[in-house]
Amino acid sequence: MAQVHLRKIVKEYEGGVQAVKGIDLDIADHEFVVLVGPSGCGKSTTLRMIAGLEEISSGEIDIGGSIVNDVPPRDRDIAMVFQNYALYPHMTVYDNMAFGLMLRKFDKTEIKRRVENAAKILDIGMLLDRKPKALSGGQRQRVAMGRAIVRDPAVFLFDEPLSNLDAKLRVQMRTEIKKVHQTVKTTTIYVTHDQIEAMTLADRVVVMNHGNIEQVGPPQELYHHP
Ligand code: ADP
Ligand code: ADP
């Protein structure tokens, strides 16, 4: 649970490309915000700066009341879900979900409690002993979400999590993600190029274009072009 504030954040890549041009955004506790816009508009760069995977050129990022500009990714109170799932192939589903907690020195009983709780939320309790190669795309995506949920972070970051799934599964997982958010209520920042996904999931949609924020508002107030 946390607010997130972006204050005039800029990303200039080597070679002078300004991918993000000084955006401001205030995100409330529990809010589900979707960054949407055409390819190359700066969505992923923005998310990666919040995660700490990309250094910011100027501006400030505040997560839960702390300026995190100089905090490494692992010490930020966030968990990120990637498009490619990023599961460890040699580990079971249980160990994939437990790994981040083991690194952070959680005790075994607490790890077990959290993994089982996340597995229940995601309905993957029967898959805990499998390896990723024995899972379907949708199941892998659930495990990737499970890894984020067990961390119980202040903020979830999603980078095009459904892009690798077929249309039917995308719709199903959209519902799943909405359900998870309603259960855990974690502040969420979600990147997609898919307007329907944005409209379905978001409390508030942030439309980006050429490194700027073009529009911000609840889905029902956007995309009206009378
Ligand atoms: P989106 O996620 O909206 O597709 P990105 O944030 O990935 O957009 O990219 C924004 C802009 O920054 C694009 O012009 C892209 O080519 C450029 N860009 C992204 N990553 C790098 C990089 N590592 N080095 C240089 N330019 C980059
Ligand atoms: P853990 O929870 O086990 O500490 P994380 O999920 O935080 O692991 O991942 C560790 C780091 O690895 C991330 O902060 C990120 O830098 C990098 N990383 C993991 N998966 C990806 C991916 N698919 N694409 C880019 N970077 C990734």
From TrEMBL:
The keyword Nucleotide-binding applies. GO terms for molecular function: ATP binding. Residues 4-226 form the ABC transporter domain. The keyword Cell membrane does not apply. Keywords: ATP-binding, Nucleotide-binding, Transport. Belongs to the ABC transporter superfamily. This is Sn-glycerol-3-phosphate ABC transporter ATP-binding protein UgpC. The lineage of its organism: Bacteria, Pseudomonadati, Pseudomonadota, Alphaproteobacteria, Acetobacterales. The gene is ugpC. The chain holds residues 1 to 226 of 367 of the full protein.
